[in-house]
């Protein structure tokens, strides 16, 4: 009897448990800890844009950005809201209308919209080509954000810096050119500005086709425009932009021209670049004549950036960018590589893109102002860094002996940003000048007074500059990197010098 009772109790308990689990509401609360694959996806989303970890300067003062600038498509993008706040410029955002208003109240006629974000300034739609929304901020490329915030923008990848300046200091005299990449119809916007005695004396805007023919110089284009827009004179509109810049001496004083907002955007963007370039560019126009060959640091994939250019009478007259492998073969001439590229990116022709940038270097005479925002961005950024670094080193070197060719070999950048470079000149295949320099953020340590002072305090018995000079003279005479082993002091510089010297001998050859 007792056994039967226990069996009945067990059955009832089992039934009760079954009913409990069958009627239990499933727990749909998500696991607060992402699974490994979910975590990887989250990390990828956070790392979609590489941070620009360089310096941001506003009128020679360093700016600490809470929202780190980011890199996208080869361009440095700056946070609009934070930068506007630093410049005391009022900016408002309306999520209902998907609109941002700069310096003016929102137009009540703008209706709610779920379309792309728009940016208005002085009641004109000046929406940039690319806006990145990230962490409640709006990132815009430096080239396009500058005219929106009445500031001038210049970037120097060699200096690892973005420079933002205003009209407080006079620009440097010279004849300047700035260009944008060609649009889908093949037109390249271009601005020419002449500055004399610190004043803008002339400004000219046009757009050019592949044959370098100006759109505004084409009577047929003007006629077609007037047939379509009989109340708008394109020549008068552009002339108004040019005249306002000369008369006001400031891009921020140029009025948005109704009927020509595209020309206004192009003109103010390019003029802003020139206004910054004429104030902060270190390379200027005092170029050292010569035939240059520049070798970047070899990449892990075996390709080494390689640039050749010629400077004659202070002007860059020819320019070519390429990459070579250990056998000296050209990437541009590697049909397999180019075809594979074209197969992956049907709308991007790497050869056409790099040829356009080479031509822009000749037009602008400043690699830092070349537009590298579309396609082959690593090639474009290498081109900017290496060209700027080689021009600066040639300017800073005392080339006392005759030469024909200037070779520059660039080493691996250190953890603290140190970048060694070895410059060697040759005349009739013989070495005539040797200069070793170590840069950090574009500053040559040979001329960095705070750095030299710290060195002197830490190593009072070691004259670093004298040691480097001894290394340069020893290598020039012996052309043997191992001879530098006998020179004590400045060990890191000696090691970098020897590494670059061995690379140089592979290209130039030893003593005859």
**For the report, how would you describe the main beta sheet?**
7 strands, mixed
Overall, the morphology is: globular
Instruction: Give the integer mean of the pLDDT values.
Output: 86
Coarse structural class: alpha+beta
Indicate the low-confidence ranges by residue numbers. 1-47
Task: Based on the model shown, name its key terms.
about 500 residues, Sufe protein. Chain: A, five-stranded antiparallel beta sheet, alpha+beta, seven-stranded mixed beta sheet, 3 domains, globular, single chain
Write the layout of secondary structure elements.
Blueprint: H1 2-23, H2 36-46, E1 50-51, E2 55-58, E3 61-62, E4 70-72, E5 75-79, H3 80-86, E6 91-94, E7 99-102, E8 118-121, E9 124-125, E10 131-134, E11 137-141, H4 142-148, E12 152-156, E13 161-165, E14 174-179, E15 188-196, E16 199-208, H5 219-228, H6 234-248, H7 261-280, E17 290-295, E18 304-312, E19 315-324, H8 335-344, H9 350-364, H10 377-396, E20 405-410, E21 418-427, E22 430-440, E23 443-444, H11 449-458, H12 464-478, H13 491-508
Parallel strand pairs: 2-13, 7-8, 17-20
Antiparallel strand pairs: 1-4, 2-3, 4-5, 5-11, 6-7, 8-9, 10-11, 12-13, 14-15, 15-16, 17-18, 18-19, 20-21, 21-22, 22-23
Helix pairs in contact: 4-7
């Amino acid at each position: 009897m007792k056994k039967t009772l226990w069996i009945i109790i067990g059955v009832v308990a089992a039934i009760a448990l079954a009913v409990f689990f069958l009627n239990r509401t499933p727990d749909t609360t998500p696991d607060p800890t992402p699974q490994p694959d979910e975590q990887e996806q989250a990390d990828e989303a956070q790392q979609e844009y590489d941070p620009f970890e360089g310096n941001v300067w506003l009128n020679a003062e360093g700016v600490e950005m809470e929202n780190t600038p980011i890199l996208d498509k080869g361009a440095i993008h700056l946070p609009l809201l934070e930068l506007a706040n630093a410049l005391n410029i009022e900016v408002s955002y309306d999520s209902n209308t998907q609109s941002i208003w700069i310096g003016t109240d929102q137009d009540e006629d703008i209706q709610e919209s779920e379309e792309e974000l728009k940016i208005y300034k002085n009641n004109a739609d000046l929406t940039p080509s690319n806006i990145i929304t990230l962490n409640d901020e709006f990132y815009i490329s430096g080239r396009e954000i500058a005219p929106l915030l009445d500031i001038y923008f210049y970037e120097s990848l060699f200096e690892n810096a973005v420079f933002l300046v205003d009209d407080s200091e006079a620009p440097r005299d010279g004849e300047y050119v700035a260009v944008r990449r060609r649009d889908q119809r093949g037109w390249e916007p271009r601005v020419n500005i002449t500055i004399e005695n610190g004043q803008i004396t002339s400004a000219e805007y046009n757009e050019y086709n592949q044959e370098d023919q100006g759109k505004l110089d084409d009577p047929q284009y003007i006629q077609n425009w007037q047939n379509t827009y009989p109340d708008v004179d394109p020549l008068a509109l552009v002339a108004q932009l040019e005249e306002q810049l000369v008369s006001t001496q400031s891009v921020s004083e140029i009025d948005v021209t109704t009927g020509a907002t595209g020309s206004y955007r192009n003109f103010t963007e390019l003029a802003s670049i020139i206004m910054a370039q004429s104030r902060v560019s270190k390379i200027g126009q005092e170029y050292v004549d010569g035939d240059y060959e520049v070798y970047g640091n070899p990449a892990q994939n075996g390709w080494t950036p390689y640039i050749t250019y010629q400077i004659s009478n202070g002007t860059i007259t020819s320019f070519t960018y390429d990459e070579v492998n250990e056998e000296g073969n050209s990437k541009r001439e590697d049909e397999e590589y180019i075809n594979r590229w074209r197969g992956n990116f049907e709308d991007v022709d790497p050869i056409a893109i790099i040829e356009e940038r080479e031509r822009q270097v000749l037009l602008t005479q400043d690699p830092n102002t070349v537009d590298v925002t579309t396609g082959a961005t690593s090639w474009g950024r290498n081109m900017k860094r290496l060209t700027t670094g080689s021009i600066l080193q040639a300017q800073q070197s005392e080339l006392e002996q005759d030469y024909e060719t200037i070779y520059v070999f660039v080493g691996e950048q250190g953890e603290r940003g140190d970048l060694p470079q070895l410059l060697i000149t040759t005349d009739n295949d013989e070495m005539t000048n040797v200069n070793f320099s170590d840069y950090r953020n574009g500053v040559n340590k040979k001329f960095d007074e705070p750095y030299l002072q710290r060195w002197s305090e830490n190593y009072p018995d070691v004259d670093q500059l004298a040691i480097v000079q001894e290394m340069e003279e020893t290598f020039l005479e012996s052309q043997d990197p191992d001879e530098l082993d006998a020179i004590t002091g400045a060990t890191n510089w000696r090691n970098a010098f020897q590494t670059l010297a061995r690379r140089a001998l592979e290209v130039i050859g030893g003593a005859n």
